[in-house]
Amino acid sequence: MTAFAAILLRDLRLAYRQSSDLALVLGFYVIAASLFPFGVGATPEVLARIAPGVIWVLALLSVMLSLDRMFQNDFEDGSLEQMVLAPHSLTLTVLAKTLAHWLTTGVPLIAVTPLIAVLLNFPEQGYWTLLLGLLLGTPSLSLIGAVGASLTLGARRAGLLIALLVLPLYIPVLIFGVTAVDAVLTGVGARVHFLYLGAILAAAVALAPMAAAAGVRHGVEG
Length: 222
Description:
- The chain is mainly α.
- 84% of the residues lie in helices and 0% in strands.
- The protein has one domain.
- The chain has helices at residues 2-17, 19-40, 44-65, 72-77, 79-85, 90-119, 127-151, 158-185, 191-221.
- The mean pLDDT is 88.
């Protein structure tokens, strides 16, 4: 656990120093959302209807923009090789790096989401459902993305390859995140959808770090 905390703090410090990466992610999120009123029209009813799906898709794409930096920089400067050779668990190392990625990407996206919701005339009654869904869903996006990032170490155009690998796996998170909001707006309730999002997160926490650790080891030793 000492090694876990050390790697987590190290990655958080690096992310703080490289704040341009976060600015890129948040900039894409806000700018892309601001284009929708121009593309589909600024009619409040139209924006309110598409807002849940737009916010979830943009959050998903914004997370994906930053996945290639999860391991690539450490791979290039040799730090990742030292982590693989270290006596502590590589799975915990991957989990720490994934947690750092979520804290520096997923949490800021959730914090900016109220601005996007206002911009897209998001219905007030679904506001907390949207935030809770993102709180459950974005960690799964980071965990699944870690697997894709580990499998593309050293590859050219790694960002494109990661997208091809993880987008199909992101679809269940996207579906349950959007339908949770729709269920609340229609008066059905979102409990079942949150349970599915929680189950996906539990499975991702249990399986994704091990799969990513295997990918990292193969990438470093290969």
